[in-house]
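Quick one: Glutamate decarboxylase like 1 from Astatotilapia calliptera, structure tokens please.
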Amino acid sequence: MEGHHKEEKTSDVQSPADPGHPVKCSPVIIDNIPLNGPTVNVLASENFIHQSMSIIVENAIKKATDVREKVCEWRSPEQLKELLDLELRDGGESESEILQRFKDAIRYSVKTSECLKFNELRSEHRDTTLGKWLPECFCSSDVEGHLMNPENKHLLRFSLPGGSMSNMYAVNLARYRCCPDIKENGLSAAPRLVMFTSQECHYSISKAAALLGIGTKNVYAIPSDERGKMIPSALEEQILSAKSEGAVPFMVNATAGTTVLGAFDPIDVIADICEKHNLWLHVDACWGGAALVSSKHKHLLKGIHRADSVAWNPHKMLMACLQCSAFMVRDKTSLLQRCHSARASYLFQQDKFYDVSYDTGDKSVQCSRKPDAFKIWLMWKALGSKELEQRVDRALAMARYLAEEIKKREGFRLLMEPEYANICFWYIPPSLQTLPDGPELWEKLHKVAPVIKERMMKKGSMMVGYQPHGEKANFFRMIIISPQVSRQDMDFVLDEINNLGKDL
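--- reply ---
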């Protein structure tokens, strides 16, 4: 370090052990970089955090849950680039400028806590927000360790970053059980493996097949009935067909709560087929899993106890803060660890002074993970099982109310009776109401929902999703989750759609 290391006269430096009493020490400078003392003004940082928290409370919590505020303040991507000044520069901005950036980011973001946001299969509520902030300040597996304990009746095996990752874990685990040599020898050690899933399944199943080298063509889509449920007889036919081709079936994915129709596959019957053919049964219950907390609606998942693995997202119906996902495995032979373990001795020492079963890292594909289980734990502690059950029951009751209102109103047509919290319907403007059912009506109706969606977004009054389904023209898909939602809000949604689209 000769020529680069110099010491100057002594100066006062704060002692980490006793910040109130500075100590005398000689400054050390290496490569013109002073190394004595902190470079961050702690008091200024604390003041900045306090100001930031005030902005969050006022703008991201109070205003975001006020029905009088806009769900979104629409700006195009080009406008946002200018408004938010996304360019990065050599010099940092002032504290006041950063706080303004903070306000602008909140202002132009979609208010995910707003009760008139029915766009996706998730929402957030302000009573869960603390569970989102605290994990950013610490990293602890204690809560996950408790929720993973087999003696805990509220069992969560593993927390993962989203349902797509949970479904990928299921595919990988099922494949490992079928062909454990793949872990060391790669795909050359495996025959042609095939898996089966409903045509209504989440796209993450095909993504997992692509990512893991199974191939999307080896994902057999099983036909569904008119309500979107997998047809078990068709499943067995395709299993037998795959075997006759020389392929090796290894897994079936059943869906509990499909994304569009909210359909629940007949898990019990599918489990019979899986046992008969020795196939891993995974249930993607990311959306519909919350029905299990309701004694009134848990029948929707009849047979789920027979699944080999289950994916569930508390950040959906239960409104835990994003992201909060659970992956549950019935296996008792450490299959998850054997499948994913790399036995890194610099991390997972087996001679630690505490119970090493709390070291869950070697079961995960990731190394660093946030303690997302804390979010559902804190929310469950705060609300209790009864309140969570009431939220699910109320959401599904509200869905039934909306369905009945749709059937009463001229210009609205229900796609099907809802089984869960998905309400699918068409809005038919007055200009199309005299047309008979046929190609002309459906072709014109297909263009209606996108225009209404654009108008509601730019007005900021609410958010409701739309999509086509098979041969069906675009329709609206309402997702009811928030306990803030009232009957009056449902009426407003239908009134607003009519007001936005009656001139089409």
